[in-house]
């Protein structure tokens, strides 16, 4: 049986794509091309598929290959037993899932000694065959009496019948159709039940919502499944799946109609035995496993979407930043970074203690801002953030009125500061100073800085410690790779941590690129990549289009035009009487006007390129400096502090989405902790998934719905209350700008 064959027609049907698109895409991927390269530079071959569609083809093809390989293995193993019939071979070939294959293989799988095996050793299988084949009950009873043999531990009719029931129960449980019937009944009628082990146990209290919990399998949300699993793992809960047994029994009776008609009493006994002892535990384990896998997939997907939106936050380029890592006892670490993120000066200020100490901190911060002509402040959100924020309000009001600050999520900064990457970048600096630099750089260029940190430490996941570490890591690495190639990389400024995610690169090649740069100076042309050890023609082809060089020998290297298309790009520019040197310079408006008047579709045929490639080429020449992140909302800059006492129910605020979870979104409105917009308050219409409405980094207009001053919590709504009056920006979040709609919901996942 061929394990490598792929049913591309079925793949195309599942994905609602043309079969040719699937086949062409798989051919490109199988040839070693990366998803990023195929997405951006092989649009004619794929029929203009986007990255999500190409990754879906890759994923489903891998799943189908896995099924094919397992089918070939199962067919071989059964054939070695001499039991592979043409009918069974057809069933194996047509099985479309691993579960279906394992059901078919179950009767032939080598087993440890079972009760049924013991009964066979007692010579009872012929009696079981009588019942199974629908022979009259009188024949069976006669055979039972003849099988009584005390020496075989069969002292009476009941012992013989019990042995026969064991054999029949195993047969029933191994019927693929019956297992599938039970599975379907369980999924359609099943409920998830949990009971507390010891209600008095203090360790069980976090799971008190599940002490006596019952929910339909059809409705149990993923985050609840993971919470139940955690409760079970801790020993606080017992969990089981229950379903309609009588419906299952009716299904078994219909499947084995002849046997039930002739020997109903024995068959019913065997069916109930099969259900309680064999089918129920197996199907229950199966359902729990599938439920957990689905919940894990959902949690990983939530993490991945949040990570994508975090990485694609717009950079604040060309600006100096004063970074503050807040602290109480040891003070706040302060670093001024230049426009490229290079540290200029470091210091420590104290935000607690005597009034004199606080005034000294204010004076020092004002001095630093003025001395280094810096007007942006990145304040980490760790312990001491609130106290530092109050100090910054004084700094702005008393000395540097045009300064603004941003609260930066510092999750993972301390982890990064102790890594080999951080030590290599700043070998002479203390770990705390490295962490402060990371906070400032997250404002200047989030993508370039955050790729240095393992995504698991960035604080945007849900139940991330309850899911498969391997699956999570693979998914998040794919997201980082996708974001890096969506944005592109400056070849002469990027760190090895960023370069390793470029299409065609890996960690070793990235280090070699940086080493070459340090030895020979900046790259003058993309073609010089071929001089780097380990980069051959294939790697160059996969990577070059995602690497830009500003001010190099080849003007087109400063665009996203791939080197393989330079000849066509020059021909296009000649058509409008423009030289490559004019692209992106002071003649940009002139180039734009001239290219805008070209009929690209008819020109594509003349130049020998596809129309999609030519359109992308023209766009790259029109806007060579385009950063796709600029289309998304930037950070909210603040100049004063908001407290719970400033809030009133119905007040309108502008805030930034910090995190998105299954039950809603947390929004930074300027308080110490974010306010929660529950999923039910995101719209007047029903919202199934919060990710369909908001994403990390979105700027929202929200209204205060409830204030819990005792616990420091605020409930928000995105639904405008009747008669609500908008609060001024000053009373809301300082200098916050009005809410802006995001131009694209799924950042970086559309067409490149």
General description of the model:
The protein is globular. The protein has five domains: 8-108, RuvA domain 2-like (Arc Repressor Mutant, subunit A); 115-298, Orthogonal Bundle (Tex N-terminal region-like); 321-444, YqgF/RNase H-like domain (Nucleotidyltransferase, domain 5, 2-Layer Sandwich); 485-630, DNA polymerase, domain 1 (Orthogonal Bundle); 644-733, Beta Barrel (OB fold (Dihydrolipoamide Acetyltransferase, E2P)). Helix content is 48%, strand content 11%. It has a five-stranded mixed β-sheet with strand order 6-5-4-7-8, with helices on both faces. The chain has a five-stranded mixed barrel with strand order 11-12-13-15-14. It has 752 residues and is of the alpha/beta class. The chain contains 31 helices and 15 strands.
Structural class: alpha/beta
Ranges where pLDDT stays below 50 over 5 or more residues in a row are 723-746
- Briefly note the CATH topology name of the largest domain: Tex N-terminal region-like
Oligomeric state, counting identical vs distinct chains: single chain
Strand-residue fraction? 5-15%
Q: Which outline best applies?
A: globular
* CATH architectural arrangement of the largest domain: Orthogonal Bundle
CATH class of the largest domain: Mainly Alpha
What is the total domain count?
5
Number of strands: 15
Mean pLDDT: 89
Q: What characterizes the major β-sheet?
A: 5 strands, mixed
CATH superfamily of the largest domain: Tex N-terminal region-like
Give the strand order, joined by hyphens, for the main sheet. Answer: 6-5-4-7-8
What tags apply to this protein structure?
752 residues; 5 domains; 31 helices; alpha/beta; single chain; 48% helix; 5-stranded mixed sheet; Nucleotidyltransferase, domain 5; 5-stranded mixed barrel; Arc Repressor Mutant, subunit A; Tex N-terminal region-like
């Amino acid at each position: 049986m061929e394990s490598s064959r792929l049913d591309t027609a079925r793949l195309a049907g599942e994905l609602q794509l043309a079969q040719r698109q699937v086949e062409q895409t798989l051919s490109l991927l199988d040839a070693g091309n990366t998803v990023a390269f195929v997405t951006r530079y092989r649009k004619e071959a794929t029929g203009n598929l986007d990255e999500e569609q190409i990754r879906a083809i890759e994923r489903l093809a891998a799943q189908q290959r896995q099924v094919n390989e397992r089918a070939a293995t199962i067919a071989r193993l059964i054939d070695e037993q001499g039991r592979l019939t043409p009918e069974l071979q057809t069933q194996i070939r047509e099985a479309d899932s691993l579960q279906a294959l394992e059901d078919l293989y179950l009767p032939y799988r080598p087993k440890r000694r079972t009760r049924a095996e013991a009964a066979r050793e007692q010579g009872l299988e012929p009696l079981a065959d009588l019942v199974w084949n629908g022979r009259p009950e009188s024949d069976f009873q006669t055979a039972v009496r003849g099988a009584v043999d005390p020496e075989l531990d069969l002292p009476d009719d009941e012992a013989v019948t019990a042995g026969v029931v064991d054999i029949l129960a195993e047969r029933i449980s191994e019927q693929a159709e019956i297992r599938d019937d039970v599975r379907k009944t369980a999924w359609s009628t099943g409920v998830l039940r949990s009971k507390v082990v010891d209600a008095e146990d203090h360790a069980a209290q976090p799971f008190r919502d599940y002490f006596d919990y019952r929910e339909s399998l059809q409705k149990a949300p993923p985050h609840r499944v993971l919470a139940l699993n955690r409760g079970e793992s801790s020993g606080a809960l017992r969990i089981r799946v229950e379903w309609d047994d009588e419906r299952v029994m009716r299904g078994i009776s219909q499947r084995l109609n002849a046997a039930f008609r002739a020997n109903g009493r024995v068959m019913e006994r065997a069916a109930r035995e099969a259900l309680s002892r064999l089918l129920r535990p197996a199907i229950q384990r199966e359902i729990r496993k599938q439920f957990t896998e689905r919940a894990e997939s959902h949690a990983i997907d939530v993490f991945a979407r949040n990570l994508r939106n975090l990485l694609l936050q717009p950079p604040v380029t060309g600006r100096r930043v004063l970074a503050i890592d807040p602290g109480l006892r040891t003070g706040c670490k302060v670093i001024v970074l230049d426009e490229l993120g290079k540290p200029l000066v470091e210091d420590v200020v104290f935000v607690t203690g005597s009034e004199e100490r606080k005034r000294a901190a204010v004076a020092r911060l004002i001095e630093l801002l003025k001395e280094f002509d810096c007007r942006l402040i990145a304040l980490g959100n760790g312990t001491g953030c609130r106290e530092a924020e109050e100090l910054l309000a004084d700094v702005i009001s008393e000395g540097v009125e045009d300064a603004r600050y941003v609260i930066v999520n510092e999750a993972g900064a301390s982890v990064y500061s102790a890594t080999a990457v951080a030590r290599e970048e700043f070998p002479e600096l203390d770990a705390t100073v490295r962490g402060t630099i990371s906070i400032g750089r997250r404002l200047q260029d989030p993508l370039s800085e955050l790729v240095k940190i393992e995504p698991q430490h960035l604080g945007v996941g849900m139940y991330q410690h309850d899911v498969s570490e391997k699956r999570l890591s693979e998914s998040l690495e794919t997201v980082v790779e996708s974001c890096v190639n969506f944005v592109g990389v400056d070849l002469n400024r990027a760190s090895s941590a960023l370069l390793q995610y470029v299409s065609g690169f890996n960690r070793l090649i990235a280090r070699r690129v940086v080493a070459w740069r340090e030895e020979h100076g900046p790259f003058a042309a993309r073609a010089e990549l071929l001089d780097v050890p380990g980069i051959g023609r294939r790697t160059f082809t996969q990577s070059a289009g995602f690497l830009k060089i500003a001010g190099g020998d080849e003007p087109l290297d400063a665009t996203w035009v791939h080197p393989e298309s330079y000849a066509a790009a020059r021909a296009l520019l000649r058509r409008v009487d423009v030289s490559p040197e004019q692209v992106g310079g002071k003649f940009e408006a002139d180039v734009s006007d001239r290219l805008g008047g070209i009929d690209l579709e008819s020109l594509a045929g003349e130049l020998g390129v596809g129309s999609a490639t030519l359109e992308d080429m023209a766009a790259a020449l029109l806007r060579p400096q385009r950063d796709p992140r600029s289309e998304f909302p930037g950070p909210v800059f603040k100049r004063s502090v908001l407290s719970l006492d400033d809030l009133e129910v119905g007040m309108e605020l502008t805030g930034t989405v910090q995190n998105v979870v299954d039950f809603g979104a947390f929004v930074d409105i300027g308080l110490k902790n974010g306010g929660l917009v529950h999923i039910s308050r995101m719209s007047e219409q029903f919202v199934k998934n919060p990710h369909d409405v908001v994403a990390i980094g979105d700027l929202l207009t929200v209204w205060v719905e409830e204030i819990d001053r005792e616990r420091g919590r605020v409930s928000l709504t995105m639904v405008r209350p009747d008669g609500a009056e908008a609060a001024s920006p000053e009373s809301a979040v300082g200098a916050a700008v009005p809410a802006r709609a995001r131009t694209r919901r799924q950042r970086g996942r559309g067409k490149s």
